[in-house]
Amino acid sequence: MDPVVQGLLNVLSPQYLLLMAVGTVAGAIVGALPGFTATMGLTLLLPFTFVMDTTSSLVLMSALHSSAFFGDAVPAILVATPGTPSAVATVIEGHQLTRKGKAHHALLTALLASALGALMGGVSLLTLAEPLARLSLRFGPPEVFWVGVLGLTMMASLTGRSLVKGLAGTALGLLLSTVGVAHVENVVRYAFGLPQLQGGVDLVVALIGFFTIPQVLAMVERRREERYVAEYREQRGALREVFRETLTKPLLLLRAGVVGIIVGIVPAIGGPVAALMAYNEAWRASKKKEEFGKGSIEGLIAPELANNAVGPADMIPTLTLGIPGSAPAAVIMAALLLHGVKPGAGLFTGASAIMTYTYIWSYVVSGFVMFVIGYFLIRLLAQVIRIPVSLLAPLVFTLAVIGSFAVRNNLFDVWMMLGFGFLGYGLRKLGFESGPIVLGLLLGPIIEPALVTSLTLAEARGSWLHVFVLRPFSLAFILLTVWSLVRGLRGWSLMQRTAVEAEDD
Amino acid sequence: MRGTWRGTVTAVLAAGLVLSLLWAAAGAPSAYPTRPITWLVAFAPGGQSDVEVRRVQPHLEKLLGVRILVEYRTGGGGAVGWSELARARPDGYTVGGLVMPHMVIQTLLRGAEAGYRLDQIRSIAWTVAAPNALMVRKDSPFRTLRDFVEYAKANPGKLAVGGVERLSPSDLSLAQFMQAAGIRLTYVPIAGGAGPVMTSLMGGHVDAATTAASHGIRYKDQVRILAVSGKHRLKAAPDVPTFSEFGYNVTVETSWGVGAPAGVPAEVVTRLSQALLQVMRMPEIRKAVEEEGLTPLYYGPAESQAYVNRLVATYRDLVQLLR
After folding, report:
1. Where are the alpha helices (DSSP H) in B165-212?
2. How far is CA A197 from CA A190, A200, A415, B75, in A?
3. Whether B143 and B238 share a structural domain
4. Mean pLDDT of chain A
5. Which of A362, A316, A315 is nearest to A63 (CA)?
6. In 3D, which of A104, A77, A86 has the Cα closest to residue A36?
7. B82 and B51 both lie in a single domain
8. Are residue B183 and residue B108 in the same domain, yes or no?
9. pLDDT tens-digit map of B72-101
């Protein structure tokens, strides 16, 4: 029987479905705990896979990998803390929805979006692995550079009132990203002689600092007027409404999915950028831009879908070329190698074919498993809103401290997180949104090494033009960047005008 | 009534205390290790350091009878992980994966700022080595190293050779090669490890690549290895010549080992090195290592120290080459 079909039948068997259920629950928990990343979860799982056969290990890992990017939406929505960096864009709209009393609704939307993302990513892995892998090889350092620059233009959707402040925030983020050992040059910058700073600013720590702490402080500030984060209203028929809202926007879903898949195959760029790009895309194409920043459902669906599509897409270069597209993919590849399986064309034919296709199908099916399990988990998790702020704020704060310590087992990170927290809080009071800062922090490590490598390449080729511009994909990304910049600016000024008009009414 | 209660409680506590002391005393003479060992990995999961610990972990756990807990401490080209290793308690329950020449280079380049000194880490064993290789794509016009050198002589600086970041084995071995052959190539540092270097090569963004030979073996359908460093040809690629066969003395290679904070007790060193070498000698491990294009090393504690000293001397000179 055709291995593709056999793989599907395998994955639907009770044995593997059970494994997927276990993986899904584990992944959701790992994702939901700030400071714990999917990579960590997979690494913890690795020794357990030694005693299992290869296929079971892979299925378990794929389920965890997939559901971690749903789990991370939970704290993002409920308490404005991204569970993993990929949920950074989910915080923006998700938490606003919670404050409007629609936490349950938001969680269900995130769940459906995540499931659809896993489905789309899985299908791309299943059907387009070969061509997409070849495409990914065409993306060299200059292309990565331009994608990074394209990413910078997304600042427009994150900046709130003032464009200048958004630019300043992004610049601050870029500056912060240079702390530590330079990626290519082997010099240490801004470490002030402290070995702990050699490792630079960790993204998770910065996210917790810039997003969670200001939220906690804001909660505390408002505690007299708002004893609870939001009113908890049990919503009947929420599921039906979520389905209706989400499935009637096929273009939005498609755009977000494509962003996730493309980002997955471009080297060096990961979940958080995919989420932000999808968010920006949704904003750009939206007819209801004024809702963004105040609880836009479109702004919630797009990033959650994209960050789930990235996972399976990351596996495309990993399985076909043996080059892990991201840290979680690297761990899965290590598992493969340790089971004696070598990535490459040989995976899809011959003896390994059934195993490979079982694994690939498990990403597709993980969407469904995630949805079913997630639905019940959500009913439980939404109850968090019932905790009064006087208890919730300290609780979230504790989680923030634990989470920022957990990343590198480094107490210094906790101090850094607190520093960023107060900085972010103060900056927000002055009109500087946290989004652009985090964007700069995210993109710095992508843009800088790509730039340095490309410049060196240009030296060898003797021509800047040839390396930076006269390459098909670079050219495409440059044009995309210009277009994005123009649309972004127009969209932002439109948003300002409607906001002013709304105020005048 | 109360009197009896107090008496009973005291008796039970006393008995418990005596029993636990007896148990501890009985436990004391039992050899190391008695509890899980933490293994610090200085590079990202999925990299070769990770692969090396995962290779031995299940077997070591069986041999030693305790769990091995892997923890990642990445950053600074390994410096973050090794500084932590150097500062850990030398009781044998914290060990770390070591990588040469990265360990030496960090200290040579950054002195005190690296966060550790070589004498703060005791090498216990070195398990595998990978020579460096110069590779081109299968469709490249360069079929042999001679073609490559000829072209480079005629076109100084035009050939772009990708490698892993700066002041790495990639960079250093290319510098040795350039000096020995009297040619000028442009070294293109690529961030993120050997993976991106290989994709840059396969995608046609650079003309050649230099990194550990194991990567060339992995992609042997798409790349051609022109030469490898070191004294002997690779078992996994017996047709590939060494640089020295052409008269170019290129010696840089990468090796992976295990170490503990200096001052760790001798019995720990003996026990660990014995177990590690035993695992590495297992036929299936040896086979896997060779198939991956790596060379097994069986350096125990004494040879490890000598090895490290040799490397320090070599790299002190080499780093000058690049400055």
Report:
1. 169-181, 194-202
2. 8, 5, 12, 9
3. yes
4. 87
5. A362
6. A86
7. yes
8. no
9. 887 777 888 898 899 999 999 999 999 998
Note whether B191 contacts A324, CB cutoff 8 Å: no
| In a shared domain, residues B175 and B235 | yes
Assess whether B103 and B155 both reside in one domain. Answer: no
Specify the number of domains making up chain B.
Answer: 2
Amino acid letter for position A96: Q
**Do residues B136 and B275 both lie within one domain?**
no
Residue pair B122/B264 in contact by the 8 Å Cβ criterion:
yes
Q: Report yes or no: A75 and A81 within 8 Å, Cβ to Cβ.
A: yes
CB distance B188–A329 less than 8 Å? no
Residue B27, domain member (yes or no): no
The complex's ipTM works out to: 0.81
Asked if residue B9 belongs to a domain, the reply is: no
From B198, B216, B246, the end of a domain falls on: B246
What CATH code is carried by the domain that includes residue B172?
A: 3.40.190.10
Q: Nearest-CA neighbor of A441 among A155, A171, A87?
A: A171
Chain B residues in contact with A345 (beta carbon < 8 A): 221
pLDDT tens column, A30-65? 998 887 888 888 888 888 888 888 899 999 999 999
Q: Residues 311-350, chain A: which have Cβ within 8 Å of B?
A: 317, 321-324, 327, 329-331, 333-334, 337-338, 340, 342, 344-345
B3: in domain = no
Task: Please report how the helices A103-137 and A353-381 are oriented relative to each other, as an axis angle in degrees rounded to 10.
Answer: 160
How close B208 comes to chain A (CA, Å)?
12
Structure tokens at B207: 């003309």
Distance CA A225, CA A218 (A): 12
Cα–Cα distance measured from residue A28 to residue A377, given in angstroms and rounded to the nearest whole number: 9
Q: In this structure, are B125 and B258 located in the same domain? A: yes
Using the CB atoms, write b or e for A396-406: b if 16+ within 10 Å: bbebbbebbbb
Distance from CA of A409 to the nearest CA of B (A): 8
pLDDT tens string A384-437:
778 888 888 898 899 889 888 887 778 889 999 999 999 999 998 998 888 899
Which residue ranges of chain B lie beneath pLDDT 50? Answer: 1, 27-29
Same domain, B143 and B240: yes
Find the domain containing B154 and state its range.
131-246
Alpha-carbon distance of A291 to A299, in angstroms, equals: 9
